[in-house]
Amino acid sequence: MVQHSVNIRAYSPKDKPRLLVLLQLNTPKYFSAEEEKDFSCYLDHEREAYFVVEVNNKIVGCGGINTENDKGILSWAFFHPNYQHQGLGSQLVAYRLHYLLKYKQISTIIVRTSQHTYKFYEKNGFKKLSVKTDFWAKGYHLYEMEYQQ
Q1: Nearest-angstrom CA–CA distance, 147 and 149
Q2: Phi, psi values for residue 117, rounded to 5°
Q3: pLDDT at residue 1 tops 70
Q4: How far apart are CA 10 and CA 52, in angstroms?
Q5: Residue 149 — very low, low, confident or very high, per pLDDT cuts 50/70/90?
Q6: When you count CB atoms within 10 A of the terminal residue's CB, does the N or C end of the chain come out lower?
Q7: Beta strand pairing status for 140-147 and 108-113?
Q8: Cα separation, 28 vs 136, whole angstroms
């Protein structure tokens, strides 16, 4: 098994071009092409806390959090295909949960994901609340899930 030096750090705007490439590598399997402009807008105007995952000093994944009243929201997480299914996604989920749970006003943590990744979130303590067909784009359904502490 290959040893990786994993670092999770705060996003910097200089990371954006690399993250757009990572998103493209996950399109159309996990994201529709239409979502790239939404992600770009999110990074520029809507993110509260966003993190990149580096392995051996190379950005291989990312994910963020947002808050809304007493709700914490996990947002926009994905990894380079070569680094999926290695436990890095679960590390990033745990990192973001720990970050959110420091805030006393946060009573609920949700993730809004798709049919392609909801089982991953189930394995990480989330329960499905609702499903909306063709929400993100045609063929990309919204799975709203809540963390069960």
Answers
A1: 6
A2: -130, 0
A3: no
A4: 6
A5: confident
A6: N
A7: antiparallel
A8: 12
DSSP 30-84: TS-TTHHHHHHHIIIII-SEEEEEEETTEEEEEEEEEEETTEEEEEEEEE-GGGT
Beta bridge partners of 127: 146
The distance from CA 88 to its chain's CA centroid, rounded to whole angstroms, is 11
**CA–CA separation, 5 vs 58, rounded Å?**
10
The pLDDT tens digits for 17-71 are 999 999 999 999 999 998 999 999 999 999 999 999 999 999 999 999 999 999 9
Separation in Å, CA 107 to CA 27, 46, 68, 102: 33, 21, 11, 11
